User: Which sequence fits this backbone?
């Protein structure tokens, strides 16, 4: 009975680890490098170029500018965190203090952290777009979201495309 229970437990663990790795975006340091480039591109993009700035005046324009600057600062901070993770990968790979299995465990942990950072950016993107809903007129907001979603989804940063209705 114990053998069956332990076999069942091992199968469950393998099943859930396969599911969680299937959703991963980061599998290597190359993937981290690509994500860093895409994050830096997003952080430096003129996002307000997606709308006619004449449609926003006064406090609405100020609110949109503030929200956009805050969002891009968050994206840049994530890119910087990914650079640090990339450096940790190099340190782990070049370390003589760890066995190969320990290196693989630590590398997988860094890759999971990078994945979590990218997922966090996706959720911050959705929050940013929802925050803009309060600062923009409806038609302007809809046009902005459409163009922003096209741009963001072309970057292919996360597992799932951003879709705001």
Assistant:
């Amino acid at each position: 009975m114990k053998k069956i229970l332990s076999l069942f437990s091992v199968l469950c663990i393998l099943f859930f680890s396969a599911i969680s790795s299937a959703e991963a975006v980061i599998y290597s340091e190359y993937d981290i490098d690509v994500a860093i480039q895409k994050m830096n591109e997003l952080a430096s993009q003129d996002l307000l170029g997606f709308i006619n700035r004449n449609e926003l005046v006064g406090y609405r324009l100020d609110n949109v500018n503030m929200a956009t600057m805050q969002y891009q600062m968050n994206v840049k901070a994530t890119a910087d965190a990914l650079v640090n993770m990339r450096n940790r990968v190099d340190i782990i790979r070049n370390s003589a203090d760890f066995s190969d299995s320990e290196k693989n465990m630590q590398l997988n942990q860094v890759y999971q952290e990078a994945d979590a950072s990218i997922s966090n950016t996706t959720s911050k993107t959705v929050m940013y777009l929802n925050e803009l809903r309060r600062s923009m007129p409806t038609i302007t907001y809809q046009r902005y979201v459409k163009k922003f979603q096209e741009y963001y989804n072309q970057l292919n940063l996360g597992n799932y495309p951003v879709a705001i209705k």
